[in-house]
Amino acid sequence: MDGGGSDRSQTPSYDSDVPEPGAGGTVILAPTDSYADLTQGWQGSLHEIRRPRHSSGTISEITNRSKPELAGEKQEREKDGELKDKLNELQVTDDEDLSLTSSDETTASKEDEKEGGQTAAVSSGPSASGLTVIESDSEENVQTEAWRSQRKHIFVLSEAGKPIYSRYGKEDKLVTIMGVMQALVSFLQDGNDSLRCLVAGKHKFVFLNRENLNLVAVAKTEDSYHQLLFQLTYVYNQIISVLTYTQLNKIFKQRRNYDLRRLLTGSEKFIDNLLHLMDHEPSFLLGAVRCLPLPSSTRENIAQSIVQNANVKDLVFAILLANNQLITLVRMKKYFLHPSDLHLIINLVNASESFKAAESWTPICLPKFDASGFLHAYVSYLDPGCQTCLLLLTVDRDMFFTLSECRQKIVDRLNRYNCLTAITEALARTSYSISQVGIADLRHFMYKSKSTAQYTSPELDAPYTTKEEQERLFGLYLYLHHRIHSSARPLKILFHVGANETLLGWMTSGFELYTVFGPLVTKTQAITSINKLLKWIKREEDRLFILNAPTF
Amino acid sequence: MKQIEAKIVVLGSQGVGKTSVVTRYVTQTYKHVSPTIGASFFTCKVTIGDYRVKMSVWDTAGQERFRSMAPMYYRKANAAMLVYDISNKDSFDDIKMWVNGK
């Protein structure tokens, strides 16, 4: 494909020697293809996740790098006794093998005892309430028309068939339905096969079987099989993010019929919020993040404020977010943040009001970074209006006060250079409208730079101002994305004339472009337009993308 | 005036009102709070007699999954405030767990 052929108007072309718009010299996020997460889910990460326990994860790699004397740490552990042992179980370190001998046995048996008592209490609960479902409980009755008519159901159950999560309705009222699901899954597993998808009428039933957990989507939406599977993978990662893979695995190894809801209490809202975001935000579909448009000098200044004032040992990532958009990300050399991990962080901030009240300190597991242990996140909003949120992620659980001091210094410098005001203004201005792009008949677009895993998209203008129209637009993008990424027949270019819109999608090795035109546009016009659009994005790339990836 | 620093940790089951108690004390207002994630850190200065007391308060999350993190917050605390919901006996029984350490 070379630039400037005479048939330029018939097939779009992009000179592959020129970096695509938005491609920076340095990479800020781990680059992705759409579905990268998914394919890895099948082959890579499951295998990666099932690696033997003694092989070191990313977290212990960082911890060990900065703490060479393990012997000293071990002594300290013996002093601090069992509670600290329990803590260390969560923060998986390399010396785990050594500590497995005695202390682990005692905690294990104790946990068993404790659980035995509590499970007894729990099991009397559901059976009692199970009776009331059939007879009288109407408010949460899952057989209602309202429940049935939900467009996308998501269920999570344990391998033993115990309900863990349901997007709608109380999961403990769904014991029967989940039992049927588990029976279907097990039946096929018995024959060394696996159940992937069922279609019944307008509904798709998509199954994701992971070790310990089964996830099921039942949807009558535009989403394709792969898109639903992709969303289930996100839900699974969200659960890992709360518990770590290590803990999840350990629990189910000890008790196959453990009621995981106990440990997930309070985390349902993260799954709810994630599912809501995935139905509205293209970032998940694209495997990319949207950056807050800012002059590059301002962004550079903000990054410098962080680099200069948060240059402390063991700090892995510093992330500044506003309104689900990335302002900047500073990372430890050698380590990258995967977009899907960043999505989980964005979801955490988006779903938690409590961070607005005070500085917070919370464990978080980033499944792509290291599914076996927790990072510790310092979370604090920087402005009184609680729009700009700073997250500092470290492997050291005792660093809260150090990071709190860093935060103060960062805020001081940001104020000195009026950066916080610049952010507030950028947020108030909203992003940009399609009219600024100045291309006739182009209604909306999404552009993703693959190498940097960032995307840009204009505001939703007329006709996409109502909720119904916005959902319809999202459905069009789902369709376009599905057709282009279809595993049976992947496409480079798709020109689709619909009743209300004409769609043009284009994939190259460097970018993905999805455009929506008015219905009357011709193919030639559309191709001329997207060439113009690419030039416009190139011109604006300084503002729309993070081109430089600062490191500590 | 003499200065004292006091480190306080607030513990108890989820939903009993730990954050409400703390925000009421620190900000002198009642407001609707949402479940704490991990732990929140508050500071507050009061004068008692001849002493100016600088309190730093760790308001911990009550959710079970955060329980194993608790030692991190109470390790160097001068005082622990155990909170339960008077209308929920289970939350009172849970207090024993914090006192006895199991």
TrEMBL record, chain A:
GO CC terms, sorted: Mon1-Ccz1 complex
Q: Which GO terms describe its biological process?
A: protein targeting to vacuole; vesicle-mediated transport
Segments of skewed composition (Basic and acidic residues): 64-88, 107-116
Note down the stretches annotated as region Disordered.
1-32, 45-136
Which residues does UniProt call coiled coil? none
Q: Where is the composition biased (Polar residues)?
A: 120-130
Q: Which residues form the FUZ/MON1/HPS1 second Longin domain?
A: 313-411
Q: Which residues form the FUZ/MON1/HPS1 third Longin domain?
A: 441-541
Q: Which Pfam families match?
A: Fuz_longin_1, Fuz_longin_2, Fuz_longin_3
Please state every residue range assigned to the domain named FUZ/MON1/HPS1 first Longin.
Answer: 152-274
Family assignment from sequence similarity: Belongs to the MON1/SAND family.
The function of this protein is:
Plays an important role in membrane trafficking through the secretory apparatus.
Q: Could you tell me what this protein is called?
A: Vacuolar fusion protein MON1 homolog
Q: Which organism is it from?
A: Lingula anatina
TrEMBL record, chain B:
Which InterPro entries does this UniProt record tie to the protein?
Answer: P-loop_NTPase, Small_GTP-bd, Small_GTPase
What start-end ranges are recorded for coiled-coil regions in this protein? none
Q: Which GO terms describe its molecular function?
A: GTP binding; GTPase activity
Q: Which Pfam families match?
A: Ras (PF00071)
Q: Which domain of life is it from?
A: Eukaryota
Matching entries from PROSITE patterns are given as:
RAB, RAS
Q: Keyword annotations for this protein?
A: GTP-binding, Nucleotide-binding
The protein's name is: Ras-like GTP-binding protein RYL2
The record lists the organism as Lingula anatina
